[in-house]
Design brief:
This protein is α/β, with parallel strands linked by helices and 291 residues long. The chain has a single domain (18-290), classed as Rossmann fold, CATH 3.40.50. Helices cover 41% and strands 21% of the residues. The protein contains 9 helices and 7 strands; from the N terminus they run H-H-E-H-E-H-E-E-H-E-H-H-E-H-H-E. It has helices spanning 18-34, 38-49, 66-74, 87-99, 138-148, 173-193, 201-207, 228-245, 251-261; strands spanning 56-60, 79-84, 106-110, 123-129, 149-160, 211-223, 279-290. Strands 3-2-1-4-5-7-6 form a 7-stranded mixed beta sheet. Strand 2, helix 4 and strand 3 form a beta-alpha-beta unit. Helix 2 packs across helix 3 and helix 6 (173-193) crosses helix 9 (251-261). The longest helix has 21 residues, at 173-193. InterPro entries: Methyltransf_25, SAM-dependent_MTases_sf. This is Methyltransferase domain-containing protein. Residues 57-153 form the Methyltransferase domain.
């Protein structure tokens, strides 16, 4: 879930609140650590379906660079151009690339894709992870992608069908119900703010001139007790979801979730640490498309 940082988990519009942006950056990093096998599996899936080994890659909506790092690791001859609208995210990405020894293989472009395509040159692979649904006009962006691809180039698009779930196996049914109520309101809000979320991207790609080469669905689940990083991921994501719908639910509807998040536990975990009834579930959908 490296891209699409405009709203991130919770679906709230991107703001310039430093604390909120920092929490979102942490969520993007922690997603990769919570599901450590996901990105290696996706990049293997891409490699198995590409006509040629990519040498120049664009990461659209790169966020903190979780996907960028996975691509650099899987394709050791490649350079990645990381595109994001947030200078802060790109700073974090560059720092991470330097720590990983990839500094000389990463270029960055601060750009709002709704305003136009940045200068990337021809590319062999465009990676768009949880970013396409944030575009005001996805068809225009996809047309830009198609023009940018080399003859054997491909687009790899990955989208969540929904935000991760955490509390549906909770021993206290009030927790599961509170999460469901939050999610129902979140869905309504996201339909207003993100009208392209949940689009039929396979059909859209075909309509926009792509040939869809592969499609895949990944069902991800991590069962409690969670690691410290997965616990922090759950806590931050649940807080972000709660904040996005707080003005739409009653105090009684939010109370079970609030008691959990405000519970005693290690710093940054609320009352989630050590629970064996917390299960992180997420479904990711992928399309590999060429000319």
């Amino acid at each position: 879930m490296d891209g699409g940082h405009h709203g991130g988990p919770g679906g709230a519009p991107h703001t310039h609140d430093t604390q909120a942006d920092g929490a979102l950056a942490d969520i993007l990093d922690l997603d990769g650590r919570t599901f450590p096998d996901f990105l290696p599996g996706v990049t293997d899936w891409i490699a198995a379906g590409t006509p040629a080994v990519p040498r120049r890659i664009v990461d659209l909506g790169a966020g903190t660079g979780t996907g960028t790092m996975a691509l650099l690791h899987r394709f050791p001859e490649a350079t990645v151009v990381a595109v994001d609208s947030s200078a802060e995210m790109l700073d974090r990405l560059r720092a991470g690339a330097a720590r990983a020894g990839y500094a000389d293989r990463v270029e960055t472009r601060e750009a709002d894709l709704d305003q136009g395509w940045p200068d990337t040159g021809p590319v062999d692979l465009v990676w768009a992870s949880s970013s396409l649904h944030h575009m005001a006009d996805p068809d225009r962006v996809l047309a830009d992608v198609l023009r940018t691809l080399t003859p054997d180039g491909v687009l790899a698009a990955v989208e969540m069908d929904d935000m991760p779930w955490f509390l549906q196996d909770a021993a206290d049914p009030a927790l599961a119900e509170s999460e469901r109520r939050c999610r129902a309101e979140l869905t309504r809000r996201r339909q207003e703010d993100l009208p392209h979320l949940g689009d039929d991207w396979g059909s859209r790609l075909r309509a926009d001139g792509f040939a869809v080469l592969r499609e895949h669905t990944w069902e991800l689940a991590v069962r409690g007790p969670l690691s410290a990083e997965a616990t922090r991921y759950a806590e931050l994501t649940l807080r972000r979801i709660r904040a996005a719908v707080a003005d739409r639910l009653t105090a009684a509807e939010l109370a079970p979730l609030d008691r959990l998040l405000d519970g005693d536990g290690p710093a940054g975990s609320g009352g989630l640490a050590g629970r064996d009834d917390v299960v992180v579930r997420s479904r990711r959908l992928g399309w590999l498309a060429g000319r």
